[in-house]
Design a protein that fits this description.
This is Ribosomal RNA small subunit methyltransferase A. By secondary structure, the chain is α/β, with parallel strands linked by helices. The chain has twelve helices and nine strands. It has a seven-stranded mixed beta sheet with strand order 4-3-2-5-6-9-7. Strands 1-8 form a two-stranded antiparallel ribbon. Helix 6 links the parallel strand 5 and strand 6. The longest helix has 14 residues. It starts with 7 loop residues before the first helix and ends with a helix. The model has no long low-confidence stretch (mean pLDDT 96). It binds S-adenosylmethionine. The site of S-adenosylmethionine (SAM) has 22 residues, from strand 1, helix 3 and strand 3.
Length: 287
């Protein structure tokens, strides 16, 4: 019974019975491919003692598979019109709860209290494409102790998440994610896996927390300020980007880069995580 939500006829019937219509503006492309569903659940690695935060459960196709395996599932869904749908699909799973809210407005640390007594927490999301990046930053910035993140994202975002320095895909998102996690693309997903099919292809990406992070810095906030400043203006040299982005005198920035052994004429997108760490540590010592 549980895997039948991936059957388009059954999913359509469910939505019709509850008078629910898909909203394009909320990125509602529901998963209808059972093979992809299995891959997401397997990648999440959840077991009997796990907690799972799901962002955007939709009709609950992924949620119920997670709830069947995990100790506790908390799903955050923006669209209240899905309430009767989820009440039906999650009825067999008392360990699954839905909170109706915009994830970007939630206090992630408060959500985390639901996972007391769980031995590890995974985050699983088939994300609305228009807000993938803000959602990932909202999660990473909260500083909560997730063990793994498994997300379905647009293929271009998957490339950015795992991008190496030097290419045009490499940016603040790549550094933020790679600082915290080892990133791997698990599966390419064609648009036919969704109802309705989106205009882009997708990929499932798995991020496993690195503990310690990829580079150990004295001041994490400062590290991310440096990263953001370096990528804020891509055409500028690193020296100019940091001068304007950090609001400090040019001579200070030149001295910091010299002490860190980094050429100020380089572009921010050529620096790796370790080099950003060097700059942040020198800055931290001076300020
Ligand atoms: N997980 C379901 C699936 O795989 O079929 C639905 C995935 S659909 C791509 C994205 C879901 O995220 C939709 O249910 C949408 O309503 C929800 N959503 C959109 N924006 C959101 C937000 N800001 N916070 C929480 N959920 C959101």
């Amino acid at each position: 019974e549980t895997d039948r939500l991936t059957t388009p006829r059954i999913l359509r019937d469910l939505m019709t019975r509850h008078g629910f219509t898909l909203k394009k503006q909320l990125g509602q492309n529901f998963l209808i491919d059972p093979y992809v569903l299995d891959a997401i659940v397997a990648a999440s690695g959840v077991g009997g003692q796990s907690g799972v935060l799901e962002i955007g459960p939709g009709a609950g196709v992924v949620t119920r598979e997670l709830a069947a395996r995990a100790k506790r599932v908390l799903a955050v869904e923006k669209d209240r019109a899905l309430e009767p749908v989820l009440a039906e699909t999650l009825a067999p799973f008392p360990n699954a709860t839905v909170q109706f809210a915009d994830f970007l407005q939630t206090d992630v640390r408060a959500l985390w209290r639901s996972f007391e007594g769980c031995d590890a927490v995974s985050v699983v999301a088939n994300l609305p494409y228009y807000i993938t990046t803000p959602i990932l930053f909202h999660l990473l910035d909260a500083g909560v102790n997730w063990q793994r993140i498994v997300v379905m994202v647009q293929k271009e975002v998957a490339d950015r998440l795992s991008a190496r320095p030097g290419g045009k895909e490499y940016g603040a998102l790549s550094v933020a994610v790679q600082y915290h996690a080892a990133v791997q693309t698990v599966l390419r997903v064609p648009n036919t896996a969704f109802l309705p099919p989106p205009g882009v292809d997708s990929a499932v990406v798995r991020m496993d927390r690195r503990d310690p992070p990829a580079v150990v810095v004295q001041n994490e906030r400062l590290f991310f300020q440096v990263v953001r400043a370096a990528f804020a203006t891509r055409r500028k040299t690193l020296q100019n980007a940091l001068t304007s982005g950090l609001g400090r005198p040019k001579e200070d920035i030149q001295a910091v880069l010299a002490a860190a052994g980094i050429d100020g004429q380089r572009r921010g997108e050529t620096l790796d995580v370790r080099e950003f760490g060097c700059i942040a540590d020198v800055l931290n010592t001076l300020s």
